[in-house]
Amino acid sequence: MDDFQPVRGMRDLLPEEAENLVSIIDKAKKTAALYGYREVITPVVESFELLNVKSGEEIRARMFVFEDLGRRKIVLRPEFTASIARLITTTLKNEPKPLRIFSVGSVYRYDEPQRGRYREFWQSNFELAGSSMPESDAEILLLTNRLMKEIGLVNYEFKLGHVGILRAILNQEGIDEQTQNAILQKMDKREFDVALELVADKKSRKTLESLINLRELESVSPNPSAIMEKIKQLVEGCEDAAKAVRNLSDILELVHKSGCQIKTVDPAFARGLEYYTGMIFEIYIPELDIAIGGGGRYDRLIEVFRGEPTPAVGVAHGLDRIALAKQMQSQMRNTVTTKSRGRKKRRVIVIPINEAMKDEAIKISELLRKAGVGTELEVMGRKMARALEDADRRKVDYTVLVGEREMKEGKVVIRNLAEREQKTVDIDNLAKILRRQK
Ligand code: HAM
């Protein structure tokens, strides 16, 4: 029989990878606190119906769906937005608005595994419900910008669009919602010819075609205000589309004024999820051609879930891709920085010099931990020389040697493995000394 391996598309995150992910999670939590988002923890499984309503074909076709023992059809959550919308329509329905909700955790999609694309991945998710004002869209962009900065990513770029513009154009001639969804799906995949075919021979086809061409022009020399002007001209006569363009301009202006530069506005930009009604966006870095985050406004989802009509906007950051992005950028800059080395946690191992000193070694380890010094204990029953060899091999910073003679005087020996130095110190001062050591 072959060795057991993780299920296809799933990964084990080994200590370093896990540490990287957790440090990004910590930054997302810090950002949530800074912007007033409170964390909720929802179940990893949801009812199939909840996700089936408005996820969009892209995600619907990739959900892990199964029947539980009670014959309920359930899914592993492919995202957080539906779970949060469910909460807002039920348990949180009487909470005053705006509601700012943060979640972080693993989500599941049956994607084709490749670099940066997994079947289990992590998202940090921010939802702001109750406001349709452009400042709430701007807030979601700004907090994303803050988080990317905090994580240390450079040269990341936002791509911005507005589903309202596209839908307004398609609505003009009564193209039904299902066909509209199919058209937007194709546009999301950049299959513009197929998308245009679905529009058939209608007047909107020409406008849509011009928007698509505009997008190509834009990719050559991005200039958001110039492109906004051109979009405005193109949609003249379609009042709803013009309104959406004004909304996008307002958001852009607010964001720019707060010092976050958006270079790319793409009028033919669509996203795989069906619930979006307004501004949509994604974040990219030059080293990766897949998005490291994305979000947008969804003003009707909560209503579809039988809640009070509640406008909402949000974002999910793809934490695995962000970790990958960070790794790629630090490799490029060749800086596994001194800064991060400086911040590395110090490793201390307490070693009893013989069997009789075991309980004293445990006591000293506990004492150090209580004082906030991360401490490992030698638990392999090895002789001191072997234990030291092992500590050296594992690049431990300090060993604390617990011997009978020193203990009688209330002392232990600290050895700095890198410097090959050792000194005898009072146990009472041990934690203080270890914390001080560089
Ligand atoms: P999404 O664009 O489907 O949006 O996913 C957000 C991010 O999750 C992506 O930008 C990407 O970084 C990451 N991601 C997606 N699929 C994978 C995968 N197979 N492997 C690794 N990372 C992946 C949403 O999920 C919406 N719920 C965002 C939102 C919140 N909109 C409004 N509120």
Would you give an account of this structure?
Strand 15 and strand 16 form a beta hairpin. Helix 1 packs across helix 13 (319-332), helix 6 packs antiparallel against helix 11 and helix 7 runs antiparallel to helix 8 (192-199). Helix content is 45%, strand content 19%. The model is unreliable at 336-343 (pLDDT under 50). The strands form three sheets. An eight-stranded mixed sheet has the order 1-5-6-11-10-9-7-8, with helices on both faces. Strands 13-12-14-15-16 form a five-stranded mixed sheet, with helices on both faces. The protein has 438 residues and is an alpha+beta fold. The two termini are 50 Å apart. Histidyl-adenosine monophosphate (HAM) binds at residues 79-81, 109, 111, 116-118, 121, 123, 125, 127, 273, 291-296, 298, 314-316, 318, 320-321.
Describe the structure concisely for a colleague.
The protein is α+β, with helices and mostly antiparallel strands and 438 residues long. The chain has helices at residues 15-35, 48-54, 57-60, 81-89, 134-151, 163-171, 177-188, 192-199, 203-220, 224-234, 239-257, 301-304, 319-332, 338-343, 358-370, 384-393, 404-408, 427-436; strands at residues 38-39, 45-47, 65-67, 73-76, 99-108, 120-129, 157-162, 264-265, 279-284, 293-297, 312-318, 348-352, 375-377, 398-402, 411-416, 421-426.
